[in-house]
Amino acid sequence: MGIEDASMRNGRALSDQWADSVVVRPRTTEQHITVHKRLVLGFAVSILTLLIVTAVAVALSVSFERCSAESGGALAANGSGSSSSKWKQSRDANSSHRDPEEDQQPWRLPRLPGTLRPRHYELRLSVQMENFSLSGEVSIEVECVRATRLIVLHADRLELERVLVFSDGKRSAGAMRIQRRFQHQPEQVHVIALHREMKPLRSYKINITFTASTEHELLGFFRSSYLLHGERRFLAVTQFSPTHARKAFPCFDEPIYKATFRVSVKHESCYQALSNMPLEGTTSEEDGWITSHFSRTPRMSTYYLAWAVANFTYREAVTDHGVLIRLYARPDAIESGSGDYALHITKRLLHFYQDYFNLEYSLPKLGKRLL
After folding, report:
1. Which CATH code for domain 312-371?
2. pTM summary value
3. Where is the Aminopeptidase N-like N-terminal domain (predicted)?
């Protein structure tokens, strides 16, 4: 019995020790009180801040109404209260008659609004090789698709000097009144707001005179140079793809807007002008310059248009389908035969593509440039 009592006493003691070691002690009352104090303090600070802000706002509104009442009484005492009310009425009337189309601000969109569709461009250019400048006049025949008072077209780094808009392409009726016009450079567009609306299914003509500088960046209408017998010579050519025709003349410079083009280039007699189409003829000017007139192009996008002013010479070939191919290059490159391979491979490639696609080349000639 003594041994069993001792063992039971020892077992009970061990079990009591194990229970004391694994028991989960609850959080004390002091910890609960600390957490609750923090929550109450944060909530009180939030309520106090909201009350202060509300009181400041009410005080400012009361002082503003008091100042307005005092100023209104002063105006009435001076006899100018009626003019103030008239000004408010006129302002409300103007705001109610604002054009919703201008409120939409289509010039801020990445694409043109689509209310007008170009059909033909008459482009007359004058190229100054001495000071690398370009001046010209473009006449754009457009068709109105949806009624609009706004003409939005592309123009980048151009100075638009004069803008005229004629109804139905007839100048005898007089130009339409232009309310205002401005340049929106972020989207590279020029906006013309008319006084009256352009009607759908009618044609209009936009005449713009402009100036630009011939840049040296291989975009738009740019200049370049080369050495010939130790002498520095210059040329000016175009690179309109994909959206750089707007740097050379005002236009609807998106591939979806296709139109025909007729180009005339005025230049010094020591240079020659080139373009997409064959040369129709030249006109001698009074100042000793000449103007080169080119044929009308097929319908195409603006980035397909091209012209150049240089004193290059050329070598030519004719395909089996009768397409004239000319390779223009520096006189020394033509004499040395540097462009013969380019001319030969161009002829073969054009013949291959015509047979492969069973489609005739759409232009009467193909010109290539080689510096």
Report:
1. 3.30.2010.30
2. 0.73
3. 118-304
